[in-house]
Amino acid sequence: MIDTEKNKYLLEQEEKSQENHIPQEKFNFGILYLGLLFVVLGIVYFYTASNASAVKIMVSYAQLWPLLVVSFGLSIFSARSTKTIAIGVFVSSLAVALTVGSVLTPDQVLDNNQTQYAAGIQEGVTEADIIIENTAGRVNVQGGLQGNLIETFYDSNYKTLEPKASREGEKQTITLRQSDYWEGIGNYYKNLTTRLNTETPTQIKVTGNAMDVTMDLSDVPVSQFNLTTTGSDVMITLGDKVEEATFDLDVTASSATIIVPRELGVEVIPALTLTTRNFESLVANADGSIYRSNNYEDKERKAQIIVNGLVSRISIVQQQ
Fold first, then answer.
1. Distance between CA atoms of residues 103 and 99, nearest Å
2. In angstroms, rounded to a whole number, what is the distance separating the alpha carbons of residues 200 and 150?
3. Contact 104, 56 (CB under 8 A)
4. Within 13 Å of residue 287, how many CA atoms lie on the same side as its CB?
5. How many CA atoms lie within 13 A of 272 on its CB side?
6. Which ranges of the chain would DSSP assign to H, the alpha helix?
7. How wide is the angle at C-alpha 90 spanned by C-alphas 86 and 93, nearest 5°?
8. pTM (2 decimals)?
């Protein structure tokens, strides 16, 4: 009888011990912290993106590394009982609250900067040089402009545009540059819309990252074109005003599509690494180093496209 009571007592003590201790590996509060953080930020981002909220999420990439430090610190936090687990959950929740609070920006702090700029054609100018640099966000360039050389509208909630004009000989240069460069995630925007003259031979140079570029140059007499970008989506439409022009594209982790008119002879020189290509309407030479459109030699107007692509997708389509 005594042995039975003793065994029963020992069994009850063992059950209590199992209730108050983690039987296997310790609880990982670092994973809990990241999980709660992503859930809360996702809910907040969805709300701020779909409503006129008083706050916006603004996170620069430089702010992301402390999250790993916090997660690592919580991961080594020891919890072997129900009490310590409760403390760990509280500390993780507090860390999530502090993190979310640090990345929320009051909407009134974000400046809605709008810049309008126009430049006429100076007397004696026979060619133009348009430079769009240090940019990101949406970039829309098109022709259709007569009278002025360029007209630009820029809209952003935290950056400004710095236009600059200069002249050297018969060339007039317009530089459109953002105030500085910022990389991150959140409720920010930058939209640049530019119209170009349809009569003046124009050189275009674009540099920037994380861009959504749409260029309709079908009525712009482009004489030279340079694009350097990373992490962007690019769509360029050429026209029959191009004559002996060179288009130089240097793209990384991007998607670029160039639409070429039927009247234009095109020669493509690709230098692609881990990049998919779509040159279906073009004919390759024997070693595949050069692609040309049908009847290239017979075309009155020609363009050369040099593409340097790294981990990208390049499409060149000639209209039929």
1. 7
2. 11
3. yes
4. 3
5. 22
6. 2-20, 29-50, 65-75, 82-103
7. 135
8. 0.71
